Amino acid sequence: MGKPVIEVRNLYKRFGERVVLKGINLAIYEGEIFVIIGGSGSGKSTLLKHLIGLLKPTEGCVCIFGRDITKLSEEELDEIRLKMGYVFQEGALFDFLTVWENVGFYYLEHTALPKEEVRKKAVEILKKVDLDESVADLYPSQLSGGMKKRVSTARAIAGEGRIILYDEPTSGLDPITSRNIDHLILSLRERVGATSVVVTHDMISALSIADRIAFIYKGELLQVGTPEEIVNSPNPIVREFVEKGLYGVKR
Ligand SMILES: Nc1ncnc2c1ncn2[C@@H]1O[C@H](COP(=O)(O)OP(=O)(O)O)[C@@H](O)[C@H]1O
Ligand SMILES: [Mg+2]
């Protein structure tokens, strides 16, 4: 499998008195689609934020491309972040920029491409998330929640990052758009060999895209395995979560 592109060792995170992550260990390999599932409040977003250095661990370390990022300065982190894309759960966009400027942000900031070219690129990327050119010149405040989410996804993949982190990319989207986002994640691996870490509530999405799935419960990884291993989990907590996700009810 080669070297992991992401490695988390003995990660603990405390907010005040509350221990939110309790000794997380994982290794994610190049080109892998690694899905994190678990109930709300279990620590998924907190874990994802550690992978891009938005949060510093209370204890433990996070290596990206073999480099411990927990001790880096903001400038050094920015250099690594250029190789990563991140879809925030809240779909955070720059309110003062148009949709195409948000999507093309990487090119506007880090390349000398003329604005017209960047806009063209942005429109192409927007198509991949089922948005057409008519939204390109709108501002985020003029978009619905689902559209913001898709623009945020477009921005994350626009930078041609080697690692893309998605925090609930399909929540609030209709089933057809959700499946298109799934295809997008798969096609990024095919086209550019991108490594994806996807936090989701969506069991159908998890089972159809994941190479491996990690189940997090109250800040601990209860199981990491293939979709098949997760579906056939011996752990009753994992099984219940999977069955609820697939059939809507506990059987
Ligand atoms: N900045 C913070 N300060 C205090 N508590 C936080 C903070 N961020 C998250 N938490 C708490 O950590 C727990 C896990 O949150 P989160 O990682 O967002 O869960 P998930 O994404 O799985 O729903 C929650 O109980 C949440 O209230
Ligand atoms: Mg979350």
Question: Can you describe what's shown?
Answer:
By secondary structure, the chain is an alpha/beta fold. The protein contains 10 helices and 10 strands. It has helices at residues 44-51, 74-81, 99-103, 105-110, 115-128, 145-158, 175-192, 203-209, 227-231, 236-247; strands spanning 4-15, 18-29, 33-37, 59-64, 67-68, 84-87, 163-167, 195-199, 212-217, 220-225. The strands form 2 sheets. It has a 6-stranded mixed β-sheet with strand order 6-7-8-3-9-10, with helices on both faces. Strand 7 (163-167), helix 7 and strand 8 form a beta-alpha-beta unit. Helix 5 (115-128) crosses helix 6. It is globular, with a radius of gyration of 18 Å. The mean pLDDT is 93. Bound molecules: adenosine-5'-diphosphate and magnesium ion. Residues 15, 20, 38, 40-46 line the site of adenosine-5'-diphosphate.
Q: What best-fitting shape do the alpha-carbon axes yield?
A: globular
The total of helices stands at: 10
Biggest sheet features: 6 strands, mixed
Order of helices and strands: EEEHEEHEHHHHEHEHEEHH
Strand content: 25-35%
Q: How helix-rich are the residues, as a percent range?
A: 25-40%
Strand arrangement, major sheet: 6-7-8-3-9-10
Number of strands: 10
Low-confidence stretches: none
Mean pLDDT, to the nearest integer, reads 93
Which class of secondary structure composition applies to the elements?
Answer: alpha/beta
**How far apart, in Å, are the first and last alpha carbons?**
37 Å
Give me the Rg, rounded: 18 Å
Descriptors for this entry?
alpha/beta; 6-stranded mixed beta sheet; single chain; binds magnesium ion; 4-stranded antiparallel beta sheet; binds adenosine-5'-diphosphate; globular; 10 strands; 251 residues
